[in-house]
């Protein structure tokens, strides 16, 4: 469904201000939005998970046996379930708002049956073990078990829960991660999340984030591109920002800079200006508030990065 981006922004702002608006928003997403094609969205998430698993492995952190913390559970726990099937010791997944939907959780578990070979290859776990865990997971969920019981206590879902202020003990987790979440978080909260990650990670632990920092309205309005929101000042942009699709408009490098400021050593940074984005940027009027950012940095609309805590465990 194609929809003018301003119309979507106004509609979401309205739904965010009325009783029952969240449920109405979910039903619209199921009927017309990203959730109408579950399989396609799930496949995209699994490809994102595959990339994350590879990055973690290259950084010296295999998923098998790891203790992980996900920021932003979403409608269904693709990453936590995939990590569980791959042999993770624990996956805590939190959301500021409780979004999880039971029918999508079950669909997610069932669809994972088609990805057991991928999960086995990405984690080094025997495919037989991955397949067995997947069958047990789907079976337990069909019987009505909750996420924790169905995963034998490995996956812990907490919502509402604030990733910037957890009750977790210090220095007990191997990895904190998120996928397409930080672009929807207030800048000050991003800093707080990074500081909390520094506190809960073990010495030498890592923080992985994949950030989709382009204009998300471009997914529903094909007349604009992912740099469109750079035309507007913060004051102007507030007309279309809303509770369901808040976008902080931070550029890719700013997330990395904030991680460094929190004390992390950056060991992966995929920031890369693409010719298509540079051309789009050159053809549009950018609001003066972004004029201080070089085009090759301003145009970047996605980034994966890893920050590692100091091996000594010293706090910054």
UniProtKB/TrEMBL annotation:
<dbReference type="InterPro" id="IPR029063">
    <property type="entry name" value="SAM-dependent_MTases_sf"/>
</dbReference>
<dbReference type="InterPro" id="IPR013216">
    <property type="entry name" value="Methyltransf_11"/>
</dbReference>
<protein>
    <recommendedName>
        <fullName>Methyltransferase type 11 domain-containing protein</fullName>
    </recommendedName>
</protein>
<feature type="domain" description="Methyltransferase type 11">
    <location>
        <begin position="159"/>
        <end position="208"/>
    </location>
</feature>
<dbReference type="GO" id="GO:0008757">
    <property type="term" value="F:S-adenosylmethionine-dependent methyltransferase activity"/>
</dbReference>
<dbReference type="Pfam" id="PF08241">
    <property type="entry name" value="Methyltransf_11"/>
</dbReference>
């Amino acid at each position: 469904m194609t929809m003018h981006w301003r119309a979507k922004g106004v509609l979401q702002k309205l739904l965010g201000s009325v009783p029952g608006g969240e449920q109405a928003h979910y039903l619209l997403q199921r009927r017309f939005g990203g959730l109408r094609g579950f399989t396609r969205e799930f496949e995209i998430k699994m490809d994102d998970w595959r990339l994350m698993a590879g990055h973690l492995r290259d950084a010296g952190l295999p998923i098998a046996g790891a203790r992980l913390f996900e920021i932003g559970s979403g409608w269904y726990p693709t990453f936590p379930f995939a990590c569980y099937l791959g042999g993770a010791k624990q996956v805590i997944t939190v959301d500021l708002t409780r979004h999880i939907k039971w029918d999508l959780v079950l669909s997610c578990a069932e669809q994972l049956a088609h990805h057991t070979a991928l999960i086995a290859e990405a984690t080094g776990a025997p495919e037989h073990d991955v397949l067995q865990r997947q069958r047990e997971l789907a079976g337990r969920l069909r019987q009505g078990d909750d996420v924790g019981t169905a995963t034998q206590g490995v996956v812990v879902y907490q919502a509402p829960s604030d990733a910037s202020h957890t009750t977790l003990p210090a220095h007990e987790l191997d990895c904190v991660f998120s996928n397409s979440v930080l672009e929807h978080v207030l800048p000050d909260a991003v800093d707080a999340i990074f500081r909390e990650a520094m506190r809960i990670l073990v010495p030498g632990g890592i923080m992985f984030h994949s950030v989709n920092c382009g204009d998300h309205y471009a997914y529903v309005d094909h007349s604009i591109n992912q740099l469109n929101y750079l035309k507007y000042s913060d004051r102007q942009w507030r007309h279309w920002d809303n509770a369901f699709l808040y976008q902080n408009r931070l550029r890719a490098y700013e997330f990395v800079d904030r991680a460094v400021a929190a004390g992390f050593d950056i060991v992966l940074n995929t920031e890369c200006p693409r010719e298509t984005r540079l051309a789009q940027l050159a053809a549009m009027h950018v609001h003066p508030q972004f004029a201080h950012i070089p085009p090759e940095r301003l145009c970047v609309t996605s980034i994966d990065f890893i920050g590692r805590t100091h091996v000594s465990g010293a706090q910054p």
